[in-house]
Structures
1.
Amino acid sequence: MSSQLSSKKSKLGDSLQLETVSDVHDGNGVVILPRHSKLYGRITYVASHQGKGHPAMLSFAVDRAEFHGRSVSLDAAVFGTYAGMTDSKIGEVVEGIGVATLRHTDSLNLVETTLMYDFRLPGNVPQAVHDARLKTVVMQLKIMPNPATRTAFVKDDGEIELNKEFLVVLLNGMRVVE
């Protein structure tokens, strides 16, 4: 992303820019968007955190790609993210990157991982006895019932902040079916 997105600072309709991190292929293996293509979109829904029962929400869609002097229309909603940022047990590889998507679920938990070490000193020699990874859910990516929003990041206990390095998987032509 060209800039950080925030449920507190972003406004409905704000523009945003992203960049593809790998070539995007069609079903026949033909490159349809080369790596480093510029993607342009807009904020489709935003709500700041208003306390218990009123979570922060942030949604955006991409409507245009530019590469090699060409411009193509898109209708792409956020469909997933880097698998290491989730607690999903089901992952897939999209353009060579391990991701978790909404293909098999209505929501993904995005987590913060803390690695904890347990060292014992038998005979004055440090040995790792047990390492633990604690995963704390920080927000979710959810399918929304509103066809204009389609998907949204939702956080129950504070504001949503998506930094420039945040990786998203987009699905062109995504439709919400009830």
2.
Amino acid sequence: MIKKSQLKYIKWSLLISLCALGVLLAFIMTSENSAVEWNGSKENTTSTREVNRIKKDSTRLKYTRQEDDPTVGGDRSHRDLIESKNIQPVENLIDEPAVLLNDPALIQAWGLKKTDVARAWSLTKGSRDVIVAVIDTGADIYHEDIADNLWINPGETGKDSKGRDKSKNGIDDDGNGFIDDVHGWNFVSDNSNLTDNHGHGTHIAGIIGAQAGNGVGIAGIAPETSLMILKYYDPKVPGTDNLRNTIRAIKYAVKMGAHIINYSGGGTEYSQEEHDAIAEAEQKGILFVAAAGNEKSNSDKFHYFPADYKLRNIISVTAIDPSTEVLSSSNYGIETVDIAAPGQDIISALPNNSYGKMTGTSQATAFVTGAAALVMAHKQTFKSTDIRKYILETGDAVNSLSGKTRYARQVNMFKALTILDKGLTVTGVMPVNTSGITDDFASDPSQKKKSQQNSVTTFRKQLQEALNKGSINPSKGK
């Protein structure tokens, strides 16, 4: 016979067990809503996962997690951090109905709002006539968000004299020294195979120029530009000369008519040949946007090239987080780093129609390259030096960037487009001419070293007066 004291003990035990079971069930339900599915692959060391919910969109996106490659780093390769955290929707990312697109992952791209891309898109989304050379690890040229925005070499398309497809006839139809270079060239293996065996190049290409409004994935900063893919590095091909490949890629971009070169790599050694290749690009009016590097150092003391070459067509870019703080991994310097852009947990394309986040100055560089492509498309009479000036001087002034970059500014796409020469801008602001912008840039070899506090230009003062009149609200859209 069970005593009353024992019965009371049994009742309490059952009650506690039921409570524990309830907590367990609640945990299981929560876990299922954020479940991550990992699928191994013998051919690809990456794994895939699907995010169950994208704001008001039933499309299921495939996200790819890439393990840090131990071979990545060192001379002329990439040290950007590749993240795989749970991707959460960001509410009200883009609130301008006129430019709302149906690319489902836009709601997760915090950098777009940070740089006022939506209002910029109301003016231009770029131009196919603007060619951006992406010197990187190649790209997935069949990616759903990239394929339609690839540069096409007119000399390697169509039919040859024998009726064969020039793109794959094994002949150098345009006589430029490269066979079947339809969308660019692989300088690692010296062929037209642009396969991205790392993912970095695809990610960068996506940030710059992923297609917009196609109902899948993301949208690039300049979604109507043309992407020339130049592969200089491949983690699966050891022992290659990355610096040599870089130089050859720059020369190809110059030869084949690129307007902007995006380069995310670099190193601490000075190369006269690389310097001269970029100088040749400068003479051709080509803008060179370079990553400041992820060495956690002051570039004023420990130089990082090619970003630190004293050439007037180079923009050196460091990376910031959503709170506009320079990333701890990013290089900085008031004499060598020009501007900051979003670089933490940036979502973009990855090989095999995948999407994922990466962190680093490479991603920030792609933002600035996208800005340059927009300005170039919108103001076709601008020279590369004009575009450089406007991007650097019209960015948002941020206190946290003081002592970190030359101008203590983060890129602002909309203001770079609306502070234009000759007449009123679309906002009603009377701009100053580019001639009013002094040339005291970080990469100007003739400039004297001055403190950041004393380097306020006449243009900046006039620009600030215009902003203070309320014609442009710097905080709107952020």
3.
Amino acid sequence: MALTQLKTGAIADDAVTTDKLANAINTERTANTAKVSLDADAVTGAKIADDAVGAEHIEQLDADLSFADSAKAKFGAGNDLEIYHDGSGSAILNAAGSGQLTISSDNALNLTSRTGQEYFFRGYTNGAAELYHDNSKKLETISTGLNVTGGVRLGGNNSANELDDYEQGTFTPVLFGQTGSTNTTGRSTAYGHYTKIGPIVSISFFVEANTGTATGQIKVAGLPFAPSSDPSHQWCGSYNWYSPGGSQSGSNFSHWVNSILYLTSGDTNIKLVYAESASMDSSKRSANWASVGTDATYGYFRCSHNFQYYTDA
């Protein structure tokens, strides 16, 4: 008589082998003649021989694999990698001494909210790595370094510690005459460099005039940022000058006690001012081209200075 019912007690340890599963049971199932009845929790690990249920028998799951709270999916001979949810949070744990944990993607790697609508991190193959705050990109790597959107706070989390503006570059200083004059001076040499950190602009410039017929007050045009509206920031220090053609009488360079650069709010021109005495009040004068002598005999006037000023830009 054929055996139609299989009881748990009839299964010896290691009796269920790959050969039995693959051939005997599957053949009878195909013919609809196999009937197996097992008690709940009857087939334990001891009943199933090693490699009896391998990848060749479980090729693809067609339903969810569900774990209870705190039940762990463990990987590795020493259970080095664990994945689980404990009811209040989820964890992926890589045991100490078991090597590194690698998350790989060919094109891009995103860390997002559960719905995928808010980014925490984005990384691109052969491209940028980005950090987000409240779904707004704040930090991005580029080929030459970093791009930061917003400010960087140093030494404290408040606005007083925030560096939110930095810029450096060059500008071309130009010597010219009084406001409204169409006369400008030519120049054989002119350079200017600036660094802006917050509201403070550091300037270094040199300019030399060797031709032209400018008249009136001497000015240097070309500041990269307009000066602050605060009147206390309008004086920015003495300047260096040299002219072999200055006259030797009247308001000439040989009588200048204080040579001062003067800035006006909103005006990117530097005005050259001097004093005929140590006082800068009523004796203040505008340096003018009549005292310089940039004619064919002497040929040039040079002016240079390193200074700082404030801007509202």
4.
Amino acid sequence: MESLGKLLAEYRPFAGQYDEWNKCIKLNDKGVSMQVFEDDEYDLERAISEHYSESFSPRFIDYSSSIIATRLLGAPLMTVRLTHLKNGGCVLGVCANHGLCDGDTFYSMMDRWAALARGTDLPPTVVIDQSQVPFDPKRRTLAETKQAVEDQGWTWVSLPPAGLRLARIATTEGILLHDQHRSKPFHISNKALKRMKLAAELDAKYGGRQLKGPLTSNEVVSSFMCQMNAKILGFADNTPCGHSTMFNWRGRLKGLSPHFAGNASSAIGTCEFFAGSPLGHIAAAMNRGLDAFKTDADMVEEHCKLFLDCHHHGLIAHMSDPRSLPYLNPIPTSSVTNNFARYPIYNVDFGTGKPDLVVPHHCGDQVIIWPRLDGDGVDVYFQGTTAKRVNAFTDPAEVAWLEAEMTKYETVLDEDSIRAWFDFRMSPTACAKDLQIKSDSLWTLNPVVVGRKPVSRNTSLWSAVMGFVMDSFVRPTAAILEQS
């Protein structure tokens, strides 16, 4: 493990120790926990097939670097467990305290560790410099922070001190108010992704939904998973919902190095919508919501400062109502997606070849978008309550419905049929038929208030028709597949 020693010389905080009294990490080079086991029950095939089961992670990962253990017991901030499987193969389980790093730092560190193990000569690019994070020397007081939260349209939750501490531990530890369930991975191929994006673009176009730029794969897949979360959790079509995503400050925050090692990300609310909204309507709202974070550097800096002020004062605040998020709500109406598709996760080669599988971490995010070894699109995982519902599907009809929904852009809807469907549905005859049948319900849609932000559906003739067009366009797919 010479390479691990070299790695820790660059990432010194990971070998340090948390100082609860001074609320800091001591760079005392205490080291990390390293374990090596032999497993005579699991072979590589079984480990891969059961990687999303509840028993997998506790078997192959040492969780003694948890927030509670490191704060109260002085436990190592990072643990490594290497398990040799029967008949060859191994599992490398690495657990790092979230107070040290975000996903960007963690997976960059793993890539660097693998390069060191291969003997690759690397330049010292790791930046551990907290001064790059925009702490305001004239930090807001608690009252000023609450006022800024309200001015920015965020929502904060007031709890008694004991409840506040419990909630803060729960949201960082991921063990109390949400569960550790994970679904099997669902594959969205490049072909399906292209079709999904086309359907969303046409829906946004004909539905009069404005875009700030081309729809991205992240926006389209996240919108699709928002739809699926709502369906799996059984929300009525008129249920107000929201979406948040993890926002990486690197490359967007002035003065922050792209190689910054630490926590430089936060959850941002992107949009609000109704549970029954068509794919393109959600994607267009998400596209508009993310635009400012892509283009307005001053807004990004103010967002980061306010986020840090809230954290400093122990204030649970978010652009969405925190009570709607999966971290604090067992039946969350706000979906949280975390996209790791762009990270070189499958390039982590310690000298024996690329891994057969890399299992996602679990920090309570409702949806993980994950890269694939073969590079064909992405895998998506449900987590938490949604995953628990999915894993409880035992009825053949439920299983068939879920598979049909998750694969409809792969197996049923090709690009020609998508275009033809929109051309037909936007014809005068089809529109008139929809209006005749649906007009009574079309014009009874009223604005619904979520928190302090009004959410309303545009009930213009064109948008109202398209709402029902996309409902009929998307939903019969399961029935078609079940009958075939």
